[in-house]
Specification:
Shape: globular
CATH topology: Lipocalin
Strand order of the largest sheet: 1-2-3-4-5-6-7-8-9
Order of helices and strands: HEEEEEEEEE
Structural class: mainly beta
Distance between the termini: 17 Å
Number of strands: 9
Radius of gyration: 14 Å
Number of helices: 1
Strand content: over 45%
Number of domains: 1
Oligomer: single chain
Helix content: 10-25%
């Protein structure tokens, strides 16, 4: 779960940082329309990011765990709250807070995982 969620959070952060992100050959094959970004990586993981106003919907498939997951993000200024659920019943909550060029991310899940990590446009995560 931690890798799938971290991938989703990093993808969300990259989406905000690079609006014109249409394809990243080394990481994933992506297709983009006005409101939708859909990607598949070389390991068989797939995810999509759909934007509707200030709400972002993420959906995906984690190849290693063979499970589907969905996450909804609600943005309020520099703060984004998210909740998600996976096909095996695991649920998670968390937030992202943007401070300058840095994003502070925190989450916890019903599976016992929790983490806090920081991402920077310059240094990455």
């Amino acid at each position: 779960m931690r890798n799938a969620l971290k991938l989703a959070l990093m993808s969300f952060s990259m989406l905000g940082a690079a609006n014109a992100w249409a394809q990243v050959p080394a990481l994933a094959n992506c297709t983009r329309s006005a409101n939708l970004l859909a990607c598949v990586d070389g390991e068989g993981n797939a995810y999509s990011v759909n934007t509707v106003g200030s709400t972002i919907y993420l959906r995906g498939f984690e190849a290693i765990g063979k499970r589907y997951w969905a996450q909804t993000n609600s943005r309020y200024g520099q703060l984004t709250f998210f909740t998600g659920i996976a096909s095996d019943g695991e649920a998670w909550v968390g937030y992202n807070r943007r401070v300058g060029w840095t994003t502070i991310n925190r989450f916890s899940s019903s599976g016992g995982s929790s983490a806090k990590f920081t991402c920077s446009r310059i240094a990455g995560c």
